């Protein structure tokens, strides 16, 4: 096999797509923002040439679609130029959302694993619980999130916990499904082997079922961490926009601050990518320790 | 029970096993009477569906009989399993891929609560028995199929059960590797003085290895002949060209044919 070249195999294809997307974005920004400039000119009783119009479409205060450099400038301004403790810092808002995401993800993972263990070891739980687990995900999260916030507020829970619980609600599902499959993945011959050793169920679990389920667990965790972030952002929307990326999105749409919305969106995407990468690194580290082929 | 039962390792009397399947009951074993004595090397041979693997699984308490009786070391198979009376070698090596070879051999030792020092000593000893010294730190995928199966034999030997149950352990290997492993197995048997029950569908393998050959036939699974081997205990590979060997092989073949004419 040929040696993999980073520039040719990774950078070139990804870079090409990025360049194409940015170009497309600029074209779309000009198209979508031009009517505003034409209207302004018409109101002033003047006409505007395309050459005059072009730079203006990329420098509007509240564009329909901000140009990429406007979003980058906003990102730079709200991350680097602001103290991280400032309420105007995107880093601060990202941290607020991230903390809820991580807490929700941790709770969702533990809950998912515990449910999967119950389902695999107990027929009654398998029959009774699994349909509910699946049904829980058919309810739109946007419908149930405000209810959770309101109910928890009534019992005195506010701030981090309600958001984290919405993350938990979303993230436990892939973990349950993945782990049920993973804990059932040992072959009959491997289970028979444990039987011949007169191994207890706890021994069979720790020495066979748990290690067998690791690849399934990490695949589920990658999905779970991403939707945990979605859950935390959705959980911030009905709280009246105090802090967090969700709050930034909501405040931006209240005041028509599209640049702010896009900056928050990109921040959310960056956080999601970072989280998935971290889980991916943990995945390969665990598999390496378990003797996977290099 | 006669006196022989008490001394025997496995003793089956009028044993029968019927599986209840969706298509109705399937008789896997019927009227099996068999005694395996200490130190025997008993092969079970017959076409697929004759119940040879099922019989081995009955000894191992992986299947329950539906009629008759069976004792293992004078106990029920379940009691014998609780006392870890046997080591089982499956058709596939069934090594755990996330454990190194030595950790795989340590698996039964961990479960049975051996100390760390004792585990180490036993791993070294059994690796030497199956000629895998120096491979302890390797993962299963780094070993050939034959080496993997030897590792699984080492795992079955590690906790010193006197009875070794082997279910077509070399069935998936090519003939050259198989000859080699057969030779090694005989040496191992001579050194360890174990009782071995060995399922196979190869006539030369059965005749070469065994002190007794149990010929079985299908539908319903039953024993049609038990042949005592007249070969000496010392068996070089070329013994398989001797007239004595061929005569026993002939008798096994006759037994298998007689079983088939039943249909």
UniProtKB/TrEMBL annotation, chain A:
<feature type="transmembrane region" description="Helical">
    <location>
        <begin position="94"/>
        <end position="120"/>
    </location>
</feature>
<keyword id="KW-1133">Transmembrane helix</keyword>
<keyword id="KW-0812">Transmembrane</keyword>
<keyword id="KW-0472">Membrane</keyword>
<dbReference type="GO" id="GO:0005886">
    <property type="term" value="C:plasma membrane"/>
</dbReference>
<comment type="similarity">
    <text>Belongs to the binding-protein-dependent transport system permease family.</text>
</comment>
<feature type="transmembrane region" description="Helical">
    <location>
        <begin position="261"/>
        <end position="287"/>
    </location>
</feature>
<dbReference type="InterPro" id="IPR035906">
    <property type="entry name" value="MetI-like_sf"/>
</dbReference>
<feature type="transmembrane region" description="Helical">
    <location>
        <begin position="216"/>
        <end position="241"/>
    </location>
</feature>
<dbReference type="InterPro" id="IPR000515">
    <property type="entry name" value="MetI-like"/>
</dbReference>
<dbReference type="Pfam" id="PF00528">
    <property type="entry name" value="BPD_transp_1"/>
</dbReference>
<protein>
    <submittedName>
        <fullName>NitT/TauT family transport system permease protein</fullName>
    </submittedName>
</protein>
<keyword id="KW-1003">Cell membrane</keyword>
<feature type="transmembrane region" description="Helical">
    <location>
        <begin position="12"/>
        <end position="32"/>
    </location>
</feature>
<dbReference type="GO" id="GO:0055085">
    <property type="term" value="P:transmembrane transport"/>
</dbReference>
<keyword id="KW-0813">Transport</keyword>
<feature type="domain" description="ABC transmembrane type-1">
    <location>
        <begin position="94"/>
        <end position="283"/>
    </location>
</feature>
<feature type="transmembrane region" description="Helical">
    <location>
        <begin position="132"/>
        <end position="152"/>
    </location>
</feature>
TrEMBL record, chain B:
<protein>
    <submittedName>
        <fullName>NitT/TauT family transport system ATP-binding protein</fullName>
    </submittedName>
</protein>
<dbReference type="InterPro" id="IPR003593">
    <property type="entry name" value="AAA+_ATPase"/>
</dbReference>
<dbReference type="GO" id="GO:0016887">
    <property type="term" value="F:ATP hydrolysis activity"/>
</dbReference>
<dbReference type="InterPro" id="IPR027417">
    <property type="entry name" value="P-loop_NTPase"/>
</dbReference>
<keyword id="KW-0813">Transport</keyword>
<keyword id="KW-0547">Nucleotide-binding</keyword>
<keyword id="KW-0067">ATP-binding</keyword>
<dbReference type="InterPro" id="IPR003439">
    <property type="entry name" value="ABC_transporter-like_ATP-bd"/>
</dbReference>
<dbReference type="GO" id="GO:0005524">
    <property type="term" value="F:ATP binding"/>
</dbReference>
<feature type="domain" description="ABC transporter">
    <location>
        <begin position="10"/>
        <end position="243"/>
    </location>
</feature>
<dbReference type="Pfam" id="PF00005">
    <property type="entry name" value="ABC_tran"/>
</dbReference>
<dbReference type="InterPro" id="IPR050166">
    <property type="entry name" value="ABC_transporter_ATP-bind"/>
</dbReference>
<comment type="similarity">
    <text>Belongs to the ABC transporter superfamily.</text>
</comment>
<dbReference type="InterPro" id="IPR017871">
    <property type="entry name" value="ABC_transporter-like_CS"/>
</dbReference>
